[in-house]
Amino acid sequence: MTVEHTQHPGAAAPPRRHGRRRIPFFLFLPAGLGLAFLVLPLVALLLRTPWGELTQHLAEPAILAALRLSLLTASLATVCCILLGVPLAWLLARVEFPGRRLARALITVPLVLPPVVGGVALLLLFGRRGLIGSWLDETFGFTLPFTTAGVVVAEAFVAMPFLVIAVEGALRGADTRYEEAAATLGAGRWTTFRRVTLPLVAPGIAAGAVLCWARALGEFGATITFAGNFPGRTQTMPLAVYLALETDLEAAIVLSLILLVVSVTILASLRDRWISSP
Amino acid sequence: MGSTGIRAALTALALAAAMTATACGGGQTPAPATSGGVSGDVTVFAAASLTEAFTKIGKDFEAANPGTKVTFNFAGSSALATQITQGAPADVFAAASPATMKTVVDAGDAAGTPVVFVKNQLVIAVPKGNPKGITTLENLSKPDLKVALCAEQVPCGAAAKKALDTAGVKVTPVTLEQDVKAALSKVKLGEVDAALVYRTDAKAAAADVDGIEFPESATAINDYPVVALKDAPNKAGAEAFLAYLQSEPAKAVLTAAGFQSP
What is the pTM of this model? Predict the structure, then answer.
């Protein structure tokens, strides 16, 4: 899942006769180690998996409910992130405004913040006694914590920076001359954004959305802190896995594997469709 | 690492006889180990609910045994049990439930038989001043009340279920928290009106919450077993810490934290 920058069309790299075809072999060792580092823990997990129990757990209504909730909330969170995150990325990449560097630094806060603290922060904002939450409660009698909407909020909070950073990178890599040309030819700002800018950075948006969805799907800390844990309503797969771990390691492994297989399958099928990768 | 290990092993050998004698014959009042033979790091894996009491006891132990340093790993008992059975280097394991201790014993990681050193029971934690006027367990079944319980998989949740079942009270919680501290923090933040937590946790958070005792909690008392571990890097230190836990100063700290004697 790499952030692929759009190539500058027309700006062909000057031919470099030496060093272009020759592969630097010394990169193979760290690259191989890197791959092993990411894959071996998964192998260890697979080796401990009680495969016989897999189908048995898949048939449990509680697991299916958690899986369904996970997929639903992660997808909704991704939609929210795209709707808010793409314009935000555009703002950061294309508009000069005072405090832009600060804003850029601030959007990475949810990445640095331990998710549990993020959950507490959300409670302090949207909770029953929170800054906005107390007003919501008094005016509409509506509270976000302990609801499915709360899960979406927690996941979107943690996952949005991934999308913003990916899309901003794509926007900065994109050639602005196309937008200028569109403007010269009489296209309005909205048309330029919709017909020129968005298609240019589409691969960046897709890559960002995939990262965002994957992060939302695996979200644990902010979700359990902000939305709590109640089967069918706020208990997503990572929460179910954590609680299974309390009593039954094997069951926890099986549950994680189900989540893993489902998410990898979805990502792989999306990748073929949306992300043109060589 | 290696030389420390060897030194610890030698110390352990030298002290093994003395310690065994203390453990077997000491009974109720073995004196805190101040023989000077104990040294080095003692690593204690302890249930999260022991955080406040054990931190204090650790400091007292270091003062009574110069040259020792007690390092704690506080977490949920089940997480600690998993770490131990997966080979984490610990000297002592103190669990919040016999069930989690059993997984360590069954895996063959315990040296000797676990001893129950304290008991803990549930109280109803409510925000300071008890704004909803909760006095009994039955009150928790009011429909307009938001209640947090621990998930059944963790000791405080199992105890809560037992107490509620015994009382015949049906509570619909808004959340099943992953540990007792998480349930308590929901009360502290005002997100729920009440939670079932241990008396010790309510006591530690006395600035923000009130703990309401209820008679049915007597049916769901949690035993805290402690044991030295088989692969303890500092066996002498482990035994000395266990002996110190049974001493009067340590018991006073545990009682002050809200624990009961076994």
Answer: 0.78
